[in-house]
Design goal:
hydrolase, ATP binding, 39% helix, binds adenosine-5'-triphosphate, 27 helices, nucleotide-binding, single chain, eight-stranded mixed beta sheet, disordered N terminus
């Protein structure tokens, strides 16, 4: 309790004067030649038609009449300035888009800063191939620009694709825009994310994750189904959006002379305009500044920060939630940013527990988790209206950081932390680390408040900490394993990865590491002795069937040979999710011994991958029984449909709880399993099963993960990585092989904490992988020609230089 009170003093709004988010640098203006300029060059209405000029003046008049208060930022468009926020709603899209449905259901929304550049944007869109739109959070980029494209007539030649780094944003934006356009999802507006394609014949605007667009490019490299591609949140620099920008530039060149040229719109929230502009041959930049509502930012006060520890951010957040709850008006919901699912689940429990200590009459705190591994229907809970008498506290990872508007959020609490993976190319280790966010991320998080009313953001760090944050996020392409990306680019026709023109080029050692991995897996082979040009092998071509990393695809290809594809698909699907077994929660009354006993029942001495298979098979058996029982109950009219459904769901919950199985991860794994099976059917792969002959599956796993083979060294009680003996690891205590310590293992990944741990471990026969390891070592030491030949004979693949499908000239 003392800790609570102590922190309340630190962050009390009284002790810290609110810091309004006033821009400190002069706002760049748009000038027609597209170069941003810090001084206001004014040529007022040069690109605005008479008709639109009247409309603008009308809006301007409305704004003046309604006397907006507290404007701290302005919208600039060719020199026009107007104050905001505009508090009264104006009727927009329903009328403008002119559809019948839209006329019937006229949607009312606030005027947004983007409205002021609509005419100019339209002009750009019809006259230029590429446009860059830079705008503040909440200025209306994600929801309005696609609709402006439709109004500019671009949908006549194909769909408008809008890419998002995350599915949650793609789904929520599509839903919002469908409402604004007065249609159902799947009609004029739709979305396409993994496992859900909600588009139809009439779809004009398609929100997608950037990964889905990349997959589409693999099938149809010129993307000619789309007239326009909008890359949203380009500043996030996700791996997929950087790669997309690279291939779309080429795609655009190749479609330039056709009847259907490709239009590109790059949208970004921060001032990376120059970088994007340079990359896109000096494309014009449209700057939209200003957001709809002001947001006050609070930092931890340096005066009272004695004894305050930034690393206690979860505890500090709980104190802040309580403080805000007791001081903010009812109905002001809170969005909290933490780093990962376990942390979020435990924070939810703590916040739930706060309810017992609230004063009489206070609203109930309703914590809602939000992170990528949650099932989509559970993610949607965050967007539902808050029940009366409660305050919603959404606790999220950075998936709610960009593009997302959660109605009712008035307060953001920012831990200032994020968890990211960084790939060490030399040692081939993914290091998952919690670290400080960038200034750009802090700004984005703040921007989630003040979407539908003025907001507040409590930053759980001092202003001096903020000043030390990096300006931007490190682009993902500079910190991740590039092998999957290169495989996709080679499928698209890339031959020389070193000459790829990306917005930021990865380090040479990262490129080399990816090429070595792909060569060793038999997916590519060099076509010249300098090893600068490569071509996909027949096996590499098969890898591309699956939306998986190359080593996981390799497991499936091998399983096909071994006759155990059904088992391998189940295991590989489970490998794509987080742990299938839940961690025990503080509210669990079971003893450690009991928990241990439950977990042990799935374990096998063959390793964690077979354990995963056992979990999936056990749950499948349970579902079969449950389905039978429910069908019987329905036949005999035991209960009404609603009660049966309820009973069914309760039975699943109980089964998962009794067995410590994470229901969400189980569901995700089963969706991925279905997707992989569909791919197998499409590619006429016969469904084979090895029944209980699990050594076949282990062999397939070993061949896919052979780069992760380790040998036990009794002397120092550690495992040596065979392809790099300087690296020694321990088996993670959560593994079923952590006590038995077999002589040879492969693992799925390495985790670095205080110790270097191998996660998901399987027992193997060294003979299975020895030839591949030897060939890899040879490749590495540059005996390429010889070892490739040897490797090819070992894995019986043939070179596959003739590419059948249309390719991009990369
Ligand atoms: N689902 C929604 N419910 C209510 N209002 C919404 C919703 N989505 C968007 N809005 C309104 O539209 C405004 C603009 O949202 P939009 O996502 O287009 O902005 P943006 O410029 O893309 O911002 P960001 O980059 O921060 O996502 C929001 O500030 C909010 O007022």
């Amino acid at each position: 309790m003392e800790h609570f009170l102590e922190f309340l003093r630190h962050i009390s709004p009284k002790s810290i004067p609110p810091l309004p988010l006033t821009p400190t640098t002069p706002t760049p203006k748009i000038i027609p030649n597209g170069i941003s300029h810090p001084t206001p060059p004014i040529t007022p209405t040069s690109t605005i038609s008479q008709k639109n000029k009247k409309k603008k003046n009308k809006n301007k008049f409305k704004n003046e009449q309604r006397a907006p208060g507290g404007a701290e930022s302005k919208v600039s468009t060719n020199g026009h300035l107007f104050e905001k926020p505009v508090k009264s709603p104006v009727i927009l899209n329903g009328v403008k888009s002119g559809g019948v449905a839209a006329e019937k259901e006229r949607f009312i929304r606030q005027q947004l800063p983007i409205d002021l550049v609509e005419t100019q944007l339209m002009h750009e869109l019809v006259t230029k191939q590429t446009t860059i739109v830079i705008g503040e959070t909440g200025s209306g980029k994600s929801t309005q620009v696609p609709q402006i494209c439709v109004r500019a007539g671009l949908a006549a030649n194909g769909r408008i694709a809008v890419t998002q780094p995350r599915r949650v944003a793609a789904v929520s934006l599509a839903t919002r825009v469908a409402t604004e356009m007065g249609c159902e999802i799947g009609e004029s507006v739709g979305y396409h994310v993994r496992f859900e394609n909600m588009t139809g014949q009439k779809t004009e605007i398609e929100y997608m994750t950037d990964g889905i667009v990349l997959r589409k490019a693999l099938i149809s490299p010129l993307l000619d189904q789309y007239s326009t591609v909008i890359i949203d949140e380009a500043h996030e620099r996700s791996l997929h959006s950087d790669v997309l920008m690279c291939i779309l530039r080429i795609c655009q060149e190749q479609r330039a002379a056709s009847k259907n040229p490709l239009r590109l719109i790059i949208m970004s929230a921060t001032l990376q305009a120059e970088k994007f502009q340079k990359y896109f041959d000096n494309a014009n930049v449209i700057v939209v500044s200003g957001r709809t509502f002001p947001i006050d930012v609070y930092y931890v006060s340096p005066v009272s920060a004695k004894g305050f520890s930034v690393s206690d951010y979860v505890q500090n957040m709980i104190v802040t939630v309580k403080n805000v709850h007791l001081t903010e008006p009812k109905g002001h919901d809170i969005l909290v940013f933490l780093t990962g699912s376990d942390e979020i689940q435990s924070a939810c429990e703590h916040i739930q527990n706060l309810n017992s200590s609230l004063p009489a009459g206070a609203d109930v705190l309703m914590p809602i988790p939000l992170y990528a591994a949650l099932r989509p229907d559970q993610q949607k809970l965050a967007f539902r209206p808050t029940p009366k008498g409660t305050r919603k506290i959404i606790i999220s990872t950075n998936i709610a950081e960009t593009s997302v508007t959660i109605p009712g959020i008035r307060v953001v609490i920012d831990s200032g932390k994020v968890k990211t993976k960084r790939f060490d190319a030399v040692d081939r280790i993914d290091i998952l680390k919690i670290h400080n966010i960038s200034k750009a991320q802090a700004k984005q998080r703040t921007g989630r408040a003040g979407r539908d009313a003025p907001g507040k953001c409590y930053r759980l760090y001092q202003k001096s900490d903020f000043k030390n944050f990096d300006a931007e996020n490190m682009p993902e392409i500079l910190r991740c394993n590039l092998s999957a990306t290169f495989l996709e680019l080679m499928k698209l026709g890339m031959k020389n990865p070193h000459s790829l023109k990306l917005i930021d080029s990865p380090e040479k050692k990262n490129i080399e590491a990816a090429l070595l991995e792909l060569t060793s897996l038999g997916a590519i082979r060099p076509t010249n002795s300098e090893r600068t040009k490569f071509v996909l092998t027949e096996m590499g071509d098969k890898f591309c069937m699956y939306p998986l990393s190359p080593d996981h695809s390799r497991i499936l290809i091998q399983a096909q040979k071994e006759g155990c594809i059904m088992e391998a698909i189940k295991i590989v699907a489970a490998m794509q999710t987080e742990s299938m077994l839940s961690s025990s929660s503080s509210s669990d009354i079971r003893t450690n011994a009991e928990i241990e006993r439950i977990r042990r029942k799935f374990e096998t001495m063959e390793g964690d991958h077979i354990t995963l298979l056992k979990i999936v098979l056990t749950t499948n058996h349970f579902f079969e029984q449950l389905n039978k029982k429910t069908q019987q109950d329905a036949r005999f009219g035991k209960h009404c449909e609603k009660t049966l459904k309820n009973e069914y769901n309760q039975a699943i919950k109980k089964f998962c709880n009794d067995n410590f199985i994470n229901e969400q991860h189980l569901k995700t794994a089963s969706q991925i399993e279905e997707q992989l099976k569909e791919i197998a059917v499409q590619n006429k792969i016969p469904f084979s099963t090895c029944a209980s002959e699990f050594s076949k599956v282990r062999k397939a796993i070993a061949l896919g993960l052979f780069l992760n083979t380790c040998e036990y060294n009794r002397q120092d009680d550690r495992y040596r990585l065979l392809i790099n003996p300087a690296i020694t690891v321990k088996i993670h205590p959560s593994s079923c092989l952590s006590r038995s310590k077999p002589a040879y293992i492969v693992f799925s990944e390495l985790m670095k904490t205080t110790e270097l741990y191998a996660l998901q471990v399987t027992l193997i026969d060294i003979e299975w992988v020895q030839p591949l390891i030897a060939a890899h070592k040879k490749t590495k030491s540059n005996h390429i020609a010889e070892s490739i030949e040897r490797m090819n004979s070992l894995i019986s693949t043939e070179g596959h230089p003739a590419q059948k499908k249309a390719k991009l000239s990369l």
